[in-house]
Amino acid sequence: MTDLDIRPLDRKNVKDIICCPGGLEVSDYMKGPLEETLRWRIERIEQGMKGFISYQNNQATGFLEYMPAEKAPLPIIAPGAAVLMCFHWLSPFGENKKHLDFEKLLVKKTLEVISEDFTGLATIAWDHPIHFPLNMMEMLGFKDIDNQDYIHLVWHPFEEGEPPKFIQSRYSPLDLSEQGRMAVEQAYSNRCPYSIHNAHKVKEVLQELDDPRIQHRLLTIDTRQDVIDYSVSPWGWEWLFLNDERIDFFRKEEKELKKLIKKRLDEL
Fold first, then answer.
1. What is the phi/psi pair of residue 65, to 5°?
2. What are φ and ψ of residue 2, in 5° steps?
3. How far apart are CA 268 and CA 262, in angstroms?
4. Which residues are 59's β-sheet partners?
5. Which residue from 121, 219, 222, 239 puts its CA 20 to 30 A from 206's CA?
6. How, if at all, do strands 182-188 and 120-126 pair?
7. Cβ 231 vs Cβ 167: under 8 Å
8. CA distance 237 to 86
9. How far apart are CA 164 and CA 209, in angstroms?
10. How far apart are CA 149 and CA 165, in angstroms?
11. Tally of CA atoms within 13 A in the half-sphere of 19 that contains its CB
């Protein structure tokens, strides 16, 4: 295993995070204002976000971010606790099959560092074997508190107290089909280059279709208040609805997405 150097996240090294421009998680095919990922993090640091960046051979290969629950842009109510927001690890040194082992190290370090300052650590885990996996969080001592489909609210308490809970979804997508129109409602977050890319992808498709029956609304889920205002279930910081029908668009190419939207328009 390549030697790992874990450093505290701060304003000087935040640009090294692998999801910021020039990082390992940002690919040439991605479109949109990807520099916003850095701005988003600087703003969160000003609100109390902390974390770690891991380096191998002096190259950033992983990161973890957390902040006080009262300001964290995740749908979690946990007074006095910290919220683990995002963590990821990627390496150019041929060790990516072990990425969960490296991510575990970052989470363990966080638990050690914050245990005296917060009542516990809450986060969102996925019923998924690779990305934010629920079973990995349970192995690290997190308790499964609640779930929205495949999204689980997990909790690692440091002291006795009330467990966290989800912020209740409050956003209701529109259905304009009775008017012969299509509401295209979309959310994304500047925290993630994939999310920025997907927002830009949908925007380009709608511009190409140029259909007056489309009513497009684009929302950002960047802040705590955005989370309160625009949460849907199961929770995510990006989503797409066509006339109140949620669409899985994350891995759809522009041609496939354009074909899908055109088909729905033809069915109006």
1. -130, 140
2. -65, 140
3. 10
4. 56
5. 222
6. unpaired
7. yes
8. 12
9. 44
10. 15
11. 24
Residues in the chain where the model's pLDDT stays below 70:
1-2
Query: Tokens 């690890």 map to which residue?
Result: 89
Structural tokens at position 222: 């960047």
Q: Looking up tokens 């749908």, which residue turns up?
A: 75
- For the chain, where are the E strands, in sequence order? 5-8, 50-56, 59-68, 76-77, 82-89, 120-126, 143-148, 151-157, 165-166, 182-188, 214-220, 239-242, 245-246
Ranges of H-type helices in the chain: 36-46, 99-114, 134-139, 193-209, 224-230, 254-266
What pLDDT score was predicted for residue 2? Answer: 60
> Using CA atoms, how far apart are residues 214 and 211, in angstroms rounded to an integer?
6
Measured CA angle at 238 (ends 260, 245), to 5 deg: 40
Structure pTM?
0.94
Residue 99 pLDDT: 87
Please name the residue that has the structure tokens 């994304």: 188
